[in-house]
Design brief:
CATH topology of the largest domain: TIM Barrel
Number of strands: 17
Shape: globular
Largest sheet: 8 strands, parallel
CATH architecture of the largest domain: Alpha-Beta Barrel
Number of helices: 21
Structural class: alpha/beta
Strand order of the largest sheet: 4-15-14-13-12-9-6-5
Distance between the termini: 57 Å
Strand content: 5-15%
Helix content: 40-55%
CATH class of the largest domain: Alpha Beta
Number of domains: 2
Amino acid sequence: MRYSAYIASLLLTALAAWRVLAGGGTGWGWVLAVAGLLALLGTVDLLQRRSTLRRNYPLLAHLRYGLEAIGPEIRQYFIERDTEKVPFSREQRALVYQRSKHVMDVVPFGTERNVYGVDYEWINHSLAPSFIESHDFRVRVGGEGTAQPYDASVFNISAMSFGSLSASAVRALNNGARKGGFYHDTGEGSISPYHREGGGDLVWEIGSGYFGCCEVAGRFSEERFVANATDPQVKMIEVKLSQGAKPGHGGMLPGAKVSREIALTRGVPEGVDCISPAQHSEFSTPLGLLEFVARLRRLSGGKPTGFKLAIGHPWEWFGVAKAMEESGILPDFIVVDGAEGGTGAAPAEFIEHVGVPMHEGLMLVHNTLVGLGLRDKVKVAAAGKVVSAFDIARTLAMGADWCNAGRGFMFALGCIQSQSCHTDRCPTGIATQDPRRWKHLDVADKSNRVFMFHQNTLHALRDLLCACGLNGPEELGPEHILRRVSPLEVRSLASLYRFLEPGELLGQIPEHAVFKAFWASARSNSFAPPEAVQALRKRK
């Protein structure tokens, strides 16, 4: 069906040519001209390498492009009429496409947003702008006991596994990361040969299936872990506790999709359902988590090791924080994944209604570490619908040291949000294991787009910082971001939220609702709900 229009144009061209040669009249001459031009256009679509959509859908792709070219009103009706189901707006996707293709991204006539609408946000500028020479902003990750610290970019590729992404997509992402000097998170599907080809920096994510370091799925193997973790291309180790789009939910890659390549990459049997359990088998308590992190750091030769989580029950996170304070075992970094994070497939209820959004989760983690006097010893990253330089600036202002992005880099690869990731029929060859689709994704072209998106976004971040009179992203704070909370009131994030003072949790419990409710009863030796919560449940 993908080639139906192209094949039809070839057949019609042949038929028209035969009728013209047979003396069929001028009518068939016109048919030959039109069909021939369509056949020529379809052939060009197949041979060109810049658009995967045109290579996968010769001629048919132009129908979509035609609708998009008609005008904003028609495009809004036909393409985005059900806006609540479109994860990113047209403006966000256009920004990524422009920056990834290195074309002008300026906008005429000023903002289209209602600056007097509730929740409108902006960053204040300075009358004395600064000058920052380089846009290559870095964060040193690795504290005491970390023999191989890593200087991470403030903008990196978030976790997306080989298996959910195609071989060509992984290649393009990793090559782009190598060109730009930023990291590429493997996702829990482990390190595939396609991650290794490009030589880009890797953060190896280890989920509950322990893929790439397991005897069988769900059973950790030290020997296999060491073999991968000591690879110089692997810069950091990340233990995944949960992900934003489906926190508290395991996963399964159906046996039909577990190809020989995926089986070898993950260390599981070919053709058998690949199960990622909902919880880890190597630890069951907050202290056990930290001991596992310390163990992986030692086995990796002292590489920065941390964990990723989506915030849920606050007492569970507080239990981890108390375990840090009591044991002195610290992760080198924590990645906060927001509930708005994306995935190729998750139950609708989990996508819409489970987990804490990124900014609230980030603020809770940041506040807790500040309150314990540990914030300067543990780096914090955040992920969840980060696309633009303003998104990065706002997230850093709320307490993050750097940001990760998944779908933004997918847009740079050419994703059109067809939302067919779970069907194995991705039209752009990104989220599919069908070689008839992913082999049409040109790695050289798309890796350059990944690189340019990263570079141009950081250029824009530098311009924002200069406009604010700042000398680096580390100077951003919640006082720099303003929000309209009503038609008549504007507040900075610093005044809108309660931020703890350094060491405040080491004394009395602060007058902060969530800390007041759950901090005292959180336990470092258990993720179970504290007695106060259990008593409340019994009363209900």
